[in-house]
Design goal:
2 domains, 6-stranded mixed β-sheet, alpha/beta, 331 residues
Amino acid sequence: MEILAFGVQSDEKPMIERAFQGHHEVHVLDVFLDEDTALIAAGHEVISTSVNCDLGAGVLENLAAGGTRMIAQRSTGFNNVDLKTAERLGLTVARVSYYSPHSVAEFAWTLAMAVNRRVVRASIRTRDFDFRLDGLMGRDMHGRTAGVLGTGKIGEAFARIAHGFGMRLLGWDVAENPACRELGMTYVPKEQLLAESDLVSLHVPLLPETLHLIDGAALRTMRDDAILVNSSRGGLVDTAALVAELRAGRFTGVGLDVYEAEAGLFFLDKSLEAVEDDTLARLVTFPNVLVTSHQAYYTVDAVSQIIETTVNNVLDYTEGRRSENVLVPRS
């Protein structure tokens, strides 16, 4: 069987080809799946997709009409998949339930420290042989408060690093994590966490109830000198509201590895094109904001786990097995 993999980065290509060797033939594409590219999948029973592929109702209809029966998503998140339509069409959908939480947690801290210590600004200056320290003053993290919204595996890994810095830990989640409790974390209402934290980091999934979890009211609850980091899903933050607060001169720094309208932008080279997204264009102009292109997960360790799980998901489908990774079972 030939499997078609959409949205594959150049670094991932040899890893995916090696992983499928001896099992199935795989053909990798750097283009993302959407209504324009769905026809490419015609004749392929199994396809693999990335988090920025469009798996809405229209795309799924086209896939099913072309003979696709199984979709192996190479991510934990699946907010880009219309699961009800997939079930109606008889499409099996699987995801990667788990991969290294350290990749994302460590990158969240990379963003936090980069904006706190003005690393990007300092790097730009020194490339121009400007070695002044004006405007580069940061703060010790030791003794300050870290607020962790979402204390699952990634949130726990983030909290462990914060604990290593000697920070006070506040947490918010629908269920408490005993391991975070052992670190000294205190679980509090979201509003209290936002009001008391010097650093707020988001580690919750994007669901209807978490869309714009950090909205205008939440942002106004935060300290003027706080740091906000989002390495989870862009839709957790109301970006227009964030821009309004930044224009008012608030926040020491904001580190964003995700953006709510990133589909069609992130993972692509748009450097020679006119920027049509006015909100993103404004966001990246703030000197205290660092935006990266959804790369928190992008380590050899995490990507290897993602690909290995994807291969196993495909083998489970072809051999009639079912695992915890299945979102829509085989009909």
